[in-house]
Amino acid sequence: MQTRTLGSTGPAVSALGLGAMSMSGVYGETDRAESIATVHAALEAGVSLIDTGDFYAMGHNELLLAEALRGRDRDSYQLSVKFGMLRGPGQEFGGMDGRPEAVKNFLAYSLNRLGTDHIDIYRPARLDPAVPIEETVGAIKEMIDAGYVRHLGLSEVDAATIRRAHAVHPVADLQIEYSLVSRAVEAEVLPTLRELGIGLTAYGVLSRGLISGHWSPGHTGGPGDSRAFSPRFASGNVEHNLALVEALRRVAETKGCTVAQLAIAWVAARGEEIVPLIGARSRERLAEALPAIELELTADDFAEIEKAVPLGAARGDRYPAVFMSGLGVGN
Fold this sequence. Notes:
This protein is α/β, with parallel strands linked by helices. It is 36% helix and 17% strand. The protein has helices spanning 32-44, 60-69, 100-114, 133-145, 159-168, 189-196, 238-255, 259-268, 283-289, 299-308, 321-324, and strands spanning 3-5, 12-14, 17-19, 49-53, 78-83, 85-87, 93-96, 119-124, 149-155, 171-177, 199-203, 274-278.
């Protein structure tokens, strides 16, 4: 497995990371044993960066990872944890809490659930509009100084917020959605990251399975699949978006790879500071994704991919309307 460094101050991590959210029911029912086996397979393949959030099924994801990572050398992997998203017992979202006292509270619970004495990269899941980012970052800095956190990360914020946070403490990386059908980051955020020496961990590289090459109209992950509420999967939009996937499939066939591998490789090739997160919840999907990092794309390949999926070609927002206002950039 190749490695990449997250910015000028962050850790060296595997060139592909494992996003664990889908192992906790957000896309329908999951198999706990298969999820754990997938984490093990990722580690054995050299994947060292594992991303989670304390609000993924209200702690379920962290507890699952604690079980999967038990007995492993703590220095052999890096944990990236998002915090601050408030949830209710009915799984409803209740906003964001970035107060300094809340930061320390969330961290204490995550350390306990994960069974570790430190988090490698700790980041607010979204910007709390009621709390200056300087105060949230200041609290994380205190936890870094105390040894409970190794590096500061951000998630889904705009260029101005990145600059304000970075002025308080060096930011290792920004986690944000980036894929062939979600490229808003390219306008201002990505240039800012490069200017400041900050890495990018890209989630949603397959747009929640939409551009994986495995989705079809009417498909569902079963009860609890949040994609039922996603604008890009809605009737009228999904057919248009899947036509883009078929155009991409023709490019993939000329490269001798799968659609998913081509889509992942495209993100990875956008810059050495970018680490795609693979949201695999089975060993089968993980095995398909891993070779993508070895796929070399030429200028002609990029041109053909751009023809297949032009900038802004997807229909529908990347999140339901209620969540779009909390994002630093759009689609």
